[in-house]
Amino acid sequence: MADIDLPGGQSTYDVVELRFKNSRKGFYRNIKGFNLQVGDAVVVEASPGYDIGVVSAVGELARIQVRKKTQNFKAHEARSILRKGSKDDIEKWKKFREKEADTMFASRSFASELGLEMKISDVEYQGDGSKAIFYYTAEDRVDFRQLIRHLADAFKVKIEMKQIGVRQEAARLGGIGSCGRELCCSTWLTDFRSVSTASARYQQLSLNPQKLAGQCGKLKCCLNYELDAYLDALKKFPRSDVKLKTQKGIAFHVKTDVFKEEMWYIQEDKANPGSTNFIPLTPDRVREIIRMNKAGDFPADLKDFMIEVEAEIPDYTDVVGQDSLNRFEHVFKRKKKKRKKKGGEQQAQNKGKQNTRNNASPQQKQKAKPQQQKEGQRNDPNKKRRKPKTNNKNQQQVSGQKQNNGNRSKKKTNPNAKQGQQSKGPNKAATGGGKKRTNSNNRNRNTNKPGNKPSSQGKGKGNQQAKNDKKEG
């Protein structure tokens, strides 16, 4: 509507709606005829100094907002727009906006020190920083003269205190409602109408204050949105406080389903006083029973007028669309499949190698046998690598040599005996399977000391050692 051409050469509406911090808005005159668009920052008159606001409505849309939100608005009394906001004006404005949170916390500490029963909910600096507005809520009247002195000395600005209600506080602070959307009072709702518990009763809602109250602590404003539709629908229903009389007993009204047009009653049974049954009836049948009771006629049983209601059995298996508890197992299965694929590729490669080996000549097969054994030992991941076998006799001799090297000062060894020990090959140790193994210490003693006679077990070894000594000599 801001871009609509006016008929007959009429001039555009010179009043502009500006938005300040949170939900505060005001109307100012564009006397100088600036070309303004929604979202432009402009400098306006204030007392004292100037303030900065953002354009929210221009043209005919601003005229509608003036008629809707204000009464007896006089355009000549409205303050005017000085200029469009420059870069320096906007930077200065942002600098003071950053100080508002610290100022609010400091003012709360001053109020608590003075023992004032008030809650300072918001602070708003003017565009030039010469004035600060403190918004507070309180149940009773508060004497905040001493508080103003403390704030003026601390922040060196002009102080203005404004008392607001809890709904105005929620509108300024904003938030998310139970419906998941932003609060109506902070977005588009401007007038706050009174909400009573009767609007909840007409809509067949349980009177639970936790569910019916909003963030401000009062009843939700949205309870009035559909109230007229419910009132029109309830005109089709008879009065719920009328009791239905039957030969079995009296029936009392329990609840009403407005959308399905059903009225539920509980019938007393004189034969069985403790038994109760819920009986659904249509509004027409309820009116028929009321007419019969006025005429002095009582039906035998209220179930004769009952309607059939299809019981809906909800399925709670996947109410909110959650996954199964074993949803993570599929990931592991996929990983296992990938590993199997890798094993399959290795098997295919091995099969290809086997085929080439089968097709090879017998001479090539003989040459390839030791290579196959080596490759099988290397490529087999499950087969543990074994250490190469060494003779226990050689290990013992090496250990004995280490001991002797460490103890040279104590014992002197014969170098010829060492050479004889080292000349012994592994085949002799391997062939002596039937012989008993002797202790390495005893063996070293027998070989190192020339005066000792060799034992019966090591006669062959001693003779062989003597022969080697003669040859070396």
Architecture overview:
It is a single chain. The chain is built from 17 helices and twelve strands. The chain has 473 residues and is an alpha+beta fold. The strands form three sheets. A five-stranded antiparallel beta sheet has the order 2-1-4-3-5. Strands 9-10-11-12 form a four-stranded antiparallel beta sheet, with helices on one face. A hairpin with a 5-residue loop joins strand 1 and strand 2. Helix 3 (100-114) packs antiparallel against helix 4 (145-155). The longest helix is centred in the C-terminal third of the chain and has 31 residues, at 329-359.
In short:
This protein has 473 residues and is an alpha+beta fold. The chain has helices at residues 60-69, 87-98, 100-114, 145-155, 166-173, 184-187, 197-202, 209-212, 227-234, 283-294, 329-359, 362-379, 392-406, 415-423, 426-431, 440-448, 459-472; strands spanning 15-19, 25-29, 41-45, 50-57, 81-84, 119-125, 131-137, 158-163, 244-245, 250-257, 262-268, 276-281. α3 (100-114) packs antiparallel against α4 (145-155).
Strand and helix map with partners:
Blueprint (H helix, E strand, L loop, with lengths): L14 E5 L5 E5 L11 E5 L4 E8 L2 H10 L11 E4 L2 H12 L1 H15 L4 E7 L5 E7 L7 H11 L2 E6 L2 H8 L10 H4 L9 H6 L6 H4 L14 H8 L9 E2 L4 E8 L4 E7 L7 E6 L1 H12 L34 H31 L2 H18 L12 H15 L8 H9 L2 H6 L8 H9 L10 H14 L1
Parallel strand pairs: 7-8
Antiparallel strand pairs: 1-2, 1-4, 3-4, 3-5, 6-7, 9-10, 10-11, 11-12
Helix pairs in contact: 3-4
